[in-house]
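Entry for the shared binder. Reason: the reviewer on the internal report wants the predicted structure included alongside the sequence.
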Amino acid sequence: MTQTGAVGTIEEQRRDARDVPAVGEAAPDFELLNQFGEPVRLAELRGRNVVLVFFPFAFSGICTGELCEIRDNLALFEDADATVLGISVDSKFAQRAYAEKEGYSFDLLADFWPHGAVAERYGVFDPDSGMAKRGTFIIDASGIMRYVVVNPRGQARDFADYRAALAGLVGN
């Protein structure tokens, strides 16, 4: 088993922290623990679409609203054969309590240690605040970025954008 955290080539690991992967690029691989302490590796999800939802912190207002909207519309993601992975710098213990409180049936991944390493690889780690920015990455079944958005601090994501991006995957 690999060490939990960022994985990949040395070149990928040296990627500038502010360099957000672009549409058409291969998604950087990683392995993180979910809320149950189980390892989840992106590369092992090939063959399915994946929606990475980076969020600042568990139990915060905007984050809860966004993830509850995903929870309440999970069929939209399932219909697109998409696995949803929520990611924050919180510990697996905080992620588990958060998932249980809000009834999230999708995995919440702990980018806890090394602190924010995966968020950094995706260009959404804010070192000044120690948290992930609101970044969404939709990755197709081949591991290629098909949708990328990073919202400014305090601005929720537009759920309609998920619908449009997922609709584009279903036709491929």
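Summary line for the report: Residues 7-17 have pLDDT under 50 and may be disordered.
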